[in-house]
Amino acid sequence: MNAAAAGYALICFDGLNLLIDQHAIVSLENMVTLRDGDDEVKASEIIEGNACEVHSLTAHLSVANRVDTRCRYIVVLQADKQRFGITADSVQSLLIQDPTLHSLPVCMNISESPIKAYVQIEERIAFCCDVGALWGHINSSESRHECGA
Description:
By secondary structure, the chain is α+β, with helices and mostly antiparallel strands. 17% of the residues lie in helices and 39% in strands. It has a 6-stranded mixed beta sheet with strand order 9-1-2-12-11-10.
């Protein structure tokens, strides 16, 4: 994926389709090439060159010590000065310039959510996600998770 190209990336993040700006993607790691025959892969070994933590939605957005082997990719994102990784089932480059955004229904609009709009891409619905807001949500979820433990 050419992050310098104009456009968006459609990332399936633990079953949720997210539309993000390609410029936010630092690197994309393919799990197939990283498995080396093991069933479990340590997230820290995969992204050590990027010096960041990998998060998984199914792990309550906490840091994944071991990556779920059903995930096919780790996407490293840059939000301001913070670099972080997320697990992804699929990643697709889209060359749409200005997607037609639709407001979320009132019942889905949660103030602390990083998702504020959605767009239809072919026959799928993707949720527009600001990477900075996603990092803020993950970071605050980790804090809440640590307090409850």
